[in-house]
Amino acid sequence: MNLIWEVSLTEFALVTLVLGGLAAWMTGRAVALTWGSWQRLAIYIALLSLAVRFIHYSLFGGTFLLPPAGFATALHYYVVDFIALMLIAAAARQMNRSHQMSEQYSFLYDRSGPFGWRRKV
């Protein structure tokens, strides 16, 4: 057991960063395309983190939130998964929002890097 991964680094990278990260990226993109808020994104990522925690539990023998004996450990790794997935989803949302603002409001904004936009002068 480590502070970031529960079973092994490979398992954390495969389940949380690859499988969950791809789903988080698509979730962030979907929230941006529907002009959703940060709160909506956080709710979706909280649910996705719960699903990722269940995959850790069911396939690799990690902890889950239901048995009271391992609740504190499972909550810690749930928060780790949530933070990792939220960072990925936030990057996807901001990148897509930047594209939206520069494309749909091209008369007002120019793209300023992959994550931002600036007002035209």
From TrEMBL:
UniProt KW Transmembrane helix keyword: yes
Entry keyword set: Membrane, Transmembrane, Transmembrane helix
Transmembrane feature ranges: 12-32, 41-59, 71-92
Residues annotated as domain DUF6867: 9-120
Protein name according to UniProt: DUF6867 domain-containing protein
Organism encoding this protein: Afifella marina DSM 2698
